[in-house]
Design goal:
Layout: E1 20-22, E2 28-33, E3 39-46, H1 60-68, H2 79-85, E4 90-95, E5 100-107, H3 111-123, H4 129-147, H5 150-162, H6 176-181, H7 184-194, E6 200-206, H8 210-221, E7 245-252, E8 258-265, H9 272-286, H10 292-300, E9 304-311, E10 319-326, H11 331-347, H12 352-368, H13 373-385, H14 390-401, H15 404-414, E11 420-427, E12 439-442
Parallel strand pairs: 2-6, 7-11, 7-12
Antiparallel strand pairs: 1-2, 3-5, 3-6, 4-5, 8-10, 8-11, 9-10
Length: 443
């Protein structure tokens, strides 16, 4: 416990206390019992996503997420949803660049009756041809909706600017053209290649007895066997060093508010201490109403409608981003103010008050993200796939122990002056003034 400024900060302990065990086939399994409450969450994680797709299979991970719910040879389309929902439970799934996961929440008494359905469709997805064609149109509609979403469009613009070679520049949803080239057999080969025990983790959190639950997992997931990988990882060249301001500007019809994004190359989960430190810097700049950029640009100057900062941590280096909603006429002023605050991070140590604030916010956000069984299951899966659940404990230790001098040095290492990406998504017919000494591209 420390108090240097009269406000005590206690080191928060990680809620991720359950051990990682291996099923007989090598699949990782985590069971975290919660004696209070009656809900149980099951979350199955597969270490494959958009990052792992060769160009010919762009979008297959997300499309496959949809097709898993179409069942296996023994479980028909919609039977998982029916088995869970008629008992008052919930089902869902998600796909990212680095992983895919499928999850259910049910009453503890219903776990033994619903888990077999989840295990069956995830590990033995049949991918029937007729359902494949129907679901292809559903995913295409999802792509079309995403293209109408200004925030997704702005983020896509930034990814295209920031990544020249890496698969992170490609949309997880794929494109209409890429989806139209996929076939059921191509998807089955991808499923056989990645939905294997060594790439999978199953997490169970809730009112369960650990040994009995491991026996249940062994029964329903332990029969999955590894096979030869039929789909290779994509091959790409390393990203060239950034030695300029790379600027992209795009107009969109019917857009009411301009989106400005600035980004710097960040750290990967393999460089965990730096990744934790960059999250601290993001909190200083744009996490909450008392952060620097919110106070300056929204509260004091009124130049932005909203502003925030984040540091994305992926298997490969992500981006440190600052995003603002504003009027097109204010882009230059806001960009200059952001760069001035970033420069201040490089020149000066943050104050003891700011350091305590950041420690408390990030530690509390971590704890608040584990309040429900499903949230806790998500945390277990995320950390396990990014390097192991012990990273959760090291994250909290790092946040508690990091110094103002270390944060200044991280800003000097990563948030380089004159070396960043800048994207502007603006309403059509707007003119945006850009800074001097920039590389400017309009599309």
């Amino acid at each position: 416990m420390e108090s240097g400024i009269g406000i005590e900060f206690t080191l928060v302990t990680s809620p991720l206390t359950a051990p990682v065990r291996q099923l007989n086939n090598g699949m990782s399994a985590i069971v975290h019992p919660i004696p209070v409450g009656s809900a149980v969450a099951v979350d199955v994680w597969i270490k494959t996503g958009g990052r792992h797709e060769p160009p010919a299979l762009l979008g297959v991970s997300h499309f496959l997420e949809h097709m898993v719910f179409k069942g296996s040879d023994r479980v028909g389309p919609g039977m998982l949803d029916s088995a869970v929902e008629r008992r008052g439970g919930l089902t869902n799934a998600a796909t990212s660049q680095d992983y895919t996961h499928f999850y259910i929440t049910v009453a503890a008494d219903d776990l033994a009756d619903t888990l077999p359905y989840l295990a069956e469709v995830v590990t033995r997805a049949a991918i029937p041809a007729d359902e494949f064609e129907r679901e292809r149109q559903v995913v295409i509609e999802e792509i079309l909706r995403s293209e109408d979403d200004p925030d997704r469009r702005a983020f896509k613009l930034m990814l295209n600017a920031a990544y020249q070679n890496h698969p992170y520049r490609r949309p997880v949803l794929g494109t209409i053209d890429s989806l139209n080239t996929l076939t059921p057999e191509m998807m089955r080969a991808y499923h056989r290649s990645w939905y294997q025990p060594e790439h999978m983790t199953v997490v169970v959190v809730g009112q369960v007895e650990p040994d009995a639950t491991f026996a249940l997992l062994e029964q329903h997931f332990g029969t999955l066997t590894s096979s030869h990988r039929e789909v290779d990882l994509p091959v790409f060249s390393p990203e060239p060093p950034l030695d300029e301001v790379r600027r992209v500007e795009q107009a969109q019809p019917r857009l009411e508010q301009t989106r400005l994004m600035l980004a710097w190359p960040g750290a990967s989960s393999a460089n965990w201490e730096d990744a934790c430190g960059l999250e601290c810097l993001a909190s200083v700049l744009g996490d909450g109403r008392s952060s620097r950029l919110v106070q300056l640009l929204r509260e004091e100057l009124g130049l932005v409608r909203g502003i925030g900062s984040a540091s994305a941590v992926h298997l490969d280096p992500g981006l440190f981003t600052i995003s603002a909603y504003l009027e097109a006429a204010d882009v230059a002023a806001v960009e200059s103010a952001i760069l001035a605050e970033v420069d201040r991070l490089r020149r000066e140590c943050i104050s003891p008050v700011e350091l305590q604030r950041v420690r408390r916010i990030l530690a509390n956000e971590f704890v608040f993200a584990a309040e429900s069984p499903m949230q806790l299951a998500h945390l277990y899966g995320y950390y396990q796939l990014n390097g192991g659940t012990e990273l959760a404990r090291s994250y909290l230790r790092r946040v508690h122990a990091i110094s103002a001098e270390e944060l200044r040095d991280l800003a000097r290492t990563y948030l380089l002056s004159g070396r960043y990406f800048c994207t502007v998504l603006k309403p059509e017919e707007c003119s945006v003034s850009v800074g001097v000494d920039s590389t400017s591209t309009s599309t």
